[in-house]
Amino acid sequence: MITCPRGIEDKIASNLYFILKSDLLDSLADCEISSYPGIIYAYTSKILPEVISFIRTKLASNKWYLGNFSKLIPLHKTTSLNEDEIIQAAWKLGSEINQDEKFKIQINNRGKKFNTLLLINKIASKINRRVDLEKPDKILVIEVLDNFCGISLLDDSLIIKKPV
Asked: Which of 5, 39, 125, 135 is in the most buried spot, having the most CB atoms within 10 Å?
């Protein structure tokens, strides 16, 4: 998922589509503009950490490589907008947090489909790890979107923000 300023979604989607198809040689890649302003979905058959590393390297030499984007957030799993499915998928990803790692849950609830605090409590109660809202080792990101929910377990190295 990539975020960008409103009104330039088509340009960013085109740039990302070209990068995935031409630079990363992903014949299965696709991009789609969401119904929410400034949100684009990208699909790739490539391994996410490799895609992130490639894009990060390109951005280091050319900060406009992707265009005027804001943030690129990889999504590891998608579910329907069913609360039980979301909790189950988040718990499964949360089980990958090491015993000595701290985590936090971040939910971007577009369209206000869920009670965010209640959803966080239900998920956190199933993950037996320390919570740290200030300096977590891992972030369980839940993006409630158009017709689905995207879920990721990330550290700062997997989130790409626009270079300054």
From this structure: 39
